[in-house]
Amino acid sequence: MATTETTARFSGREWSLLLVLCGAIFLEGIDVAMMGVALPSIQAELGMSAGALQWVVSAYVLGYGGFMLLGGRAADLLGRRRVFLFWLAVFVVFSGLGGLAQDGWVLITARFVTGLSAAFLTPAGLSIITTTFTGPRRDQALLVYGGIGAAGFSLGMVVGGLLTVVGWRWVFFAPVVLALLILVASLKAIPKSADRATGRFDLAGAVTVTGGMVLLVLAIAEGVWPALVGGVALLAAFVVIERRTADPLVRLGILRSGPLLRANVSALLLAAAFFGFQLVAVLYLQQVLGWSALETGLALLVVGIDSVLAPTLTPRLVARFGLAPVVTAGLLLATASFTLFLRIDHGWGYWQLFPTVLLLGLAFALAYGPLTIIATDGIADAEQGLAGGLLNTSFQFGAALGVAGVTAVAALGDTPLEGYRLAVLFPVAAALVAALTASRGARRRSA
Known about the structure:
Layout: H1 12-46, H2 50-78, H3 80-100, H4 104-132, H5 135-166, H6 170-189, H7 203-222, H8 226-244, H9 258-288, H10 293-299, H11 306-309, H12 313-321, H13 323-340, H14 350-376, H15 384-410, H16 416-446
Helix pairs in contact: 1-2, 1-4, 1-5, 1-6, 2-3, 2-4, 2-7, 2-15, 3-4, 3-6, 4-5, 4-15, 5-10, 5-14, 7-8, 7-15, 9-14, 9-15, 9-16, 12-13, 13-14, 13-16, 15-16
């Protein structure tokens, strides 16, 4: 497995390419994180019910999680630059439509298509990095990319709180401005090249896996459990199709890679822990302590330290200890972070919260980027889009699982505070299992 040399250097053109692609993953992260802060204002102005408001979030999850594998393979077959530019333009149009929405159904539709665009955009951008950069420079690029992506999630709540003070529609319009800048820069920064893989598009596989993913995301995010049966049935049909077709959408042999599997399982559990914790933290700070949305966002700002440490400290640690030990250490820090949050009570202030968010920022700095490297290391260029799609699918399913899990556990408490304390056990357990999974890779490497 590759390690990262701290001496990797990029040319000016390579920095331009990397910054454009980092901008896109930052855009995706911040777009997701900002939405939670704006939901109460959206509900008040558009008169949406609580059930309809939930679909503002779930529609994005369905589009993103359901079509991610299809998006990754489309990038490989149709051309990564072409797919990236087209779906970035789609993002601009439908994020703008969301900001202009006067009815709930328009907003929900816009969020679904925005999630769909991210499902194609994200694996295309990641595969451009993994096929353009090689050796230590590739690992360094992925650490920068991972750090910026994680920063989008952690800074999104702060930015969302600030924009919501101005007006919730700016939560949609601000990403349009950023996306337009990235789109213009991409036209020059992303080189035109013959980056397509050979083969035919597996339509039957695409229909079954996309349908199965959509139903599974629906089952996890909304508790529509009959959809779980349908999703499993479609995925079983997908496996049969992929075994028989000459040009499969997902070459099942890729799943025999131990590092890839461990990275995806760890990523799923990390996302479940983080998004579950984020929901509990926001509800606790606002509903129990009475903090405003802006105060909540600022309190969680320290998590954004990962954007500084990921491209600076993490490469040195990876060069010294290797990828799997660094990931394991990061996941153990996440476990410690969530464990500290079990002590919440009615009298907490910012300095009681600070150790939790600081450790979480350190955890993301150590785990997020190296997981991306492990999940794509050793994969052929023709399947880099697929590998990126698998990883981002794991993150998306993890997010849906985390939100559903903490919601279910919190309902067991007799009071909101008791429910939130119980709910934090879910992120603690998820992060710990992720650390144990990643540690298997560390043990195999040292054996």
